[in-house]
Structure formats: C-alpha cells, structure tokens
Amino acid sequence: MSPAAVLFDLDGTLVDTAADFYQVVNSLRADIGKSPLSDDAIREQVSNGGVALATITYDISRDHPDIQAYRQKVLDRYETAVGAHAELFDGFSEVLAFLAEQRIPWGIVTNKPRKYTELLLDRMPLPCDFVVCPEDVINNKPAPDSLLLCAEQMKVAASQCWYVGDHIRDIQAAKAAGMLSIAACFGYIEEQDDPASWEADHYIDSAQSLMAMLTGKD
User: How far are the Cα atoms of 50, 118, 141, 176 from residue 53, in angstroms, in the given order?
Assistant: First the structure.
C-alpha cells in the first residue's frame, strides 16, 4: 500500500554527509599530532553521532570522563564544515520529486542536533517542512517519540507511515511507532554490523529500490 507519509533519517540515509567529517576528524587529529584515519573508518561512525566521532578522533573510550568536551570539539569544527561536501544520495532527488507529485508528505527524523541539521539543510539547500530533532522530544531514537511527533505534525496516522534509516535504532524506533521499517543498506553501517539482524520490514540498497516500493514495482 502507498504510504500516507515517508519519514527519513538524515545522515547516511537521505543525505551523504560523510565527506564533511573526513576533514573535521583528520584536521583535529593533525592538531594533536595523530595520523589521519581512512575515509571508511570515519564514514562508518557518522550515524553513531558526535560521541562516536570523538572516540575515533582522540582515540578515547565512550566512558572517558571528558567525552562530552571532546564531542563538543568535534561539533565546533564540524560547524564550519557543515554541508561543504554533503549531497543527497544518488536517486533521492527523484524520490522526493515523486513524493511531491503524488502529494505524499515527507519529513526528516534525526538524532542530529537541530543547530547542525538546520545548517546542513540551509547550506545544501534542502527545503523540508517537517524536521524533528532530538531537542524536540524527551526520548530520542530508538524510542519512537520523535517519529510519532513527526506523524502528528503531518496529521497522518503513524501506522500509515514508512520510516527509512541506516541504523538498528531507526528500525527499532519505526517498529515501536508502528511504522513500516525500511533499512537503508547503503548507509553508514559498521563493518561488523549485520543489517539482517535488525529484522526490518524491508531492505533497500539504493533510492531506486525505494522508488520501486513506492511505485508498486518492487
């Protein structure tokens, strides 16, 4: 069945933002005399957020007593680079155009802080009427709160929404919200992770796969 609305995770699902972080992480490592990391090593951590990026930037653990300060260093450097190299994943401009033609609303539900989300969307630019960030809810993904809030703002039933994401927490959130869960296997997935274990309702390897679902050709 056609969805009443389609919701997307941001980094690693709708927008390829990894290249923005290559320079951020490696410039910070250069500042403290550390050797650069490979693009792949950085890329697979982007969907895990600022704390994960801080751990690989400074070679520290997540339970380091100053982890939040290190996270902020990464975010401060990122602020100057947001959107410099980011772009929609291949085929998603066509997906968004199709949704507009079919008058199917779409939105973004992300754990990315609003400050950086808005900078990214403005600098790309990527107009979106419905954007839910972690500051908008008490419990972030994998809790369903942000997805349910977006559906409420769209004035559609959560059970009639599709949610597309590249992390297990996206699938968990979609299931908890009663939405159709779609795993984006082209996203920022760690080498040791197995998306099949997420038990998503559907798996896609490209925007074209999602388009096939939307047009009933899947």
Answer: 5, 20, 18, 27
